[in-house]
Amino acid sequence: MTSPDLVDSAAQAAASAERPGLLRQLSRNPSVVFGTVVLLVMVVLGLLAPALDTLDPAGIDPAWRNKRPGTEHTITLPSGQELEYVHRMGTDSLGRDLYSRVLYGARISLVVGLAVAVISIAVGLVIGLLAGYVRWLDGVAMRVMDGLMAIPGILLAIGLVSLWGAGLATVIIAIAVPEIPRVVRLVRSIVLSIREEPYVEAAISVGTPLVPILYRHVLPNTIAPLLVQGTYVCASAILVEAILSFLGVGIPPETPTWGNIMAEGRVLFQVFPHNILFPGVFLALTILAVNLLGDGLRDTLDPRMAKRF
């Protein structure tokens, strides 16, 4: 008689043989390449912002407010030395260097997107696995998820931020909560289809406990869809964080984010459009890159679409 472990190993080996060179396939997908390159650039800009000739993003200089891109500014260092500095993206209405604020704002947007994706997928995966496999829990869990999905995500996030106060952790949780039901429904649909497979029924017939069944047979089938879903959640979280900051209910104004930079510049947009143009371009490129990466992963990991590449 063939042992369950041997069957699992054979199935994994067969799956690997059918999909050779996954990294090679990903590298041949233009959407994956473009999305990865742009995201890496944004990560590098955010992490290395202090070393990229930036100023204090919160430093106020009213004498140099609303300067256009390319304006030169003589800065006196604490040592008394004078330094010629070029405001590459201009300054805002408080005289803060827009180039420095945009680069530092990349940190917040990327952290929020990644954190929301990880939290929503982790929580949604657990609830979805249990709801899809434990029949009596399915009804209760899905009615709660339906109730959360009935509330517009942005309104739910605004309500949670209003209750708990503005801050990075609060914004991450407020954005993650509306995303969890979408992940739960995805995982549940996968589990409902997998639980009817012959190898799962065989594992149940030989008395395999619930946890090993979920870990060995069900969980591996959710990895590829969750990777794709995670990219869309990340892009949505970055956009929602910018909306919250733009509305003044997100990250506090003293912390630079692309949303509150645009919020502060909207009053003088017709006269000084650079206050919204530069953070808007960075925000749009980042969201586009994440969405294209998700599309590329879906096309490559989905067997029905992988034949194109």
TrEMBL record:
PROSITE patterns: ABC_TM1. It is a multi-pass membrane protein. One of its GO terms (biological process) is transmembrane transport. Keywords: Cell membrane, Membrane, Transmembrane, Transmembrane helix, Transport. It is found in: Cell membrane. Residues 110-294 form the ABC transmembrane type-1 domain. Pfam families: BPD_transp_1, OppC_N. InterPro entries: BP-dependent_transpt_permease (IPR050366), MetI-like (IPR000515), MetI-like_sf (IPR035906), OppC_N (IPR025966). The chain crosses the membrane at residues 32-52, 108-133, 154-178, 227-251, 271-294. The keyword Membrane applies. Coiled coil: none annotated. One of its GO terms (cellular component) is plasma membrane. Belongs to the binding-protein-dependent transport system permease family. This is Peptide ABC transporter permease. It comes from Thalassobaculum fulvum.
